[in-house]
Amino acid sequence: MPIELDNYLKNTWAVRKQVQDQLKLTILAAGLGRRMDPISTHHLPKPMFPLGGTVPMAEIWVRRAVEAGITNVSMNLCVLQETIRSHFKDGLLFGADINYIEEDRPSGTLGGVCKQALGTEAKQTLADEIMGSTAAFSGTTVIAPSGDIVTNFGVELLEQMYEIHKRQGAAFTMLLAPIPWKRRKEFGTVILGKSERSRGPLSESGPIIDFIEKDPDSPSNLNNASVYFIEMELLEKLDPFRTAADPNVREPFYDFGKHVFPAMLGKLAYFKPPKDYLLWGIRYDGLWYDVGRKRDYLSINKSVLDNKIHLDLPYQKLPWGYLGSGTVINFAEVTIIPPVIIGNECIIERGAKLGPYAIIGDGWTIEKDVCISNSVLWKRYAYFTKQGEKISVRERKLVDRHEVRQGSVIDECIIVGGTITPGLYDSKADRLFEKTVDVLENGELQLVSIDWVPAGPRL
């Protein structure tokens, strides 16, 4: 029998305003995530990276949509598709109806949204391109967040953004987040025209008059925060001109930042929309993270531990942090420096020192005199080989023991699993510091700097 949610949904803003059928959430979840290698290669795509030891980043958007009364949800998938499907399934657990667009290669931000929103009516840009099998969305507006964005942009702010978007008659409304000036080269930034100011997290709103893609000398630090409200009419007009996500094609048209925004502003030489569509921006002064780097991932988890990110964790909340079930620990014999998260079914031995900012995922054994701080240790996940073969969590236990041996010191690390020993770090070093540790198919550990990025293009 289905889950009856009528009483819950009737109090949500989308239902109260009678617009629930006009809104659809389209999560962009098909990026390759190459900057997060090696951990995004064999285990999880970025939208599934756990926060607080267990909650996937993309789950936050699904939950917020349902809390707003929006139950029509879709995602486009590319890398490690099964991990997303197996977690969300049909969406009923979360109160949503989730559909998926499977892609064997990314189709860009424009392609990802068009294929989710237009379904079988979306343009096929390549002869062998995998297309969706669902009908086009019959409503008016899609909400399109990136699956690797983490923010406290909650239900009330979604409602406010929707109201501004509709009141202004915008075809495309972009959330904007101020970033440190020194990071302008990493993000697309925006210049607003005559704007309106207001109190609260949505402090400024106005027409976008210029979009500057990743320029260290941009006169603005208002960053494209990758949360969009888009009218279906605009997508229907743009989709026929969409190309494959290949910068080498003639007159490429597949990316919001590179192509759509310049076109809407009259600055793309080879394409102009069939009519003038309003591009609007709304400044958001709340917490916002783009998981573009491994350091960003650690920073987000620190914000979770500081309760700055609004996140419901399935653990017992305590004055020092969170504790899972089935964990063996004698608090009289260990040192906890808050904040700390210890997951389910862990063993914490005498003399261990955890924190500050230590997240110990499910199933870890932390031996005597181990020190862990400013680090995230993942619970055990399935492993996917280069050939696409899945090695289950149960099978992985044979090569991934999930243990930190006596005397090990870990700081500023992301650790997928394995057996961590003092022998992993140089004899001149006093700790395992600023490393990403992966466990390969045969159980061998792969250690790289937390700042390591593979060569090649990112999509």
TrEMBL record:
The keyword Transferase applies. Residues 27-306 form the Nucleotidyl transferase domain. GO terms for molecular function: transferase activity. Pfam families: NTP_transferase. It comes from the Bacteria. CDD domains: NTP_transferase. Transmembrane segments: none annotated. Keywords: Transferase. Gene3D superfamilies: Hexapeptide repeat proteins, Spore Coat Polysaccharide Biosynthesis Protein SpsA, Chain A. This is Nucleotidyl transferase. It comes from Desulfobacca acetoxidans (strain ATCC 700848 / DSM 11109 / ASRB2).
